[in-house]
Design brief:
The chain is an all-alpha fold. It has one domain (about 1-235). About 80% of the residues lie in helices and about 0% in strands. It contains twelve helices and no strands. The protein starts with a helix and ends with a helix.
């Protein structure tokens, strides 16, 4: 598993994908930070995290679109399917490589928060830390979804488009739930909303329930990805 993890992480920097992701992420992060804090003279980072979550609709698929689709296109997935490690270890190694690049870039982007302490005495550190933690778990959930989608096709563009759509739907659930008149369905959609689950973090609250939900999404989609490869192994 360690070898696959290292190979996947290195692959991001032997191709333009890793550099493009970091450059686009940090550029957008800086723009959002300036708009939500410096420009508005606010030390509240809640809006920053909220906007970044919606930008993940585009950013996360950049990381995941090639993880498994490229293996299928280049016919190298047979090597993975016949390797001595388990399918779960293979899938988890790829997930971990994408999450490492995502979280590393995220932490670099958060360094700009240091500016807030220079001009404001009312920085809510608890809200900042809890918001960052929530975003990391939410990003992990989106990466697991993108990894699963990548296992369904050998076309990277199709993988990216389907991932964008899937993440958009997951975020849109909370926005459309209020317009659903049928109460049981409204409650179900709101409960499934990844965005609504994040609201506690934005207020500086550490939500174990939300973390459990995000981890459940990660485990569920990694499991589905493994099942896809188990089926393919026996075909």
């Amino acid at each position: 598993m360690k070898a696959i993890y290292k190979r996947e992480l290195a692959a991001y920097f032997t191709s333009p994908i890793g550099y493009i992701f970091m450059a686009v992420y940090l550029a957008l992060s800086g723009a959002v930070f300036v708009f939500t804090t410096l420009y508005s003279a606010s030390s509240n980072t809640g809006m920053y995290f909220m906007l970044m979550i919606f930008l993940y609709i585009i950013l996360i698929p950049l990381l995941t679109m090639k993880l498994l689709s490229e293996e299928r296109k280049l016919k190298t997935e047979q090597i993975l399917l016949t390797s001595p490690i388990s399918l779960f270890e293979m899938v988890f190694a790829k997930f971990l490589a994408a999450f490492t690049l995502f979280s590393g870039t995220f932490v670099i982007g958060c360094l700009e928060f240091g500016v807030l302490y220079l001009y404001s005495d009312s920085v809510n550190t608890a809200s900042m830390v809890s918001g960052a933690l929530g975003v990391l778990f939410l990003g992990g959930a989106f990466i697991a979804i993108g990894l699963f989608v990548s296992s369904l096709t050998e076309n990277q563009l199709v993988s990216a488009i389907l991932s964008i759509f899937s993440i958009f739907v997951m975020l849109a659930m909370g926005l459309v739930s209020q317009s659903i008149e049928f109460a049981p369905l409204r409650i179900l959609v709101k409960w499934l909303s990844v965005f609504d689950r994040y609201s506690d973090f934005s207020y500086g609250l550490f939500s174990l329930g939300a973390i459990f939900y995000y981890v459940s999404i990660i485990v569920a989609f990694l499991f589905l990805t493994v099942r896809i490869y188990e089926k393919r192994r026996w075909e």
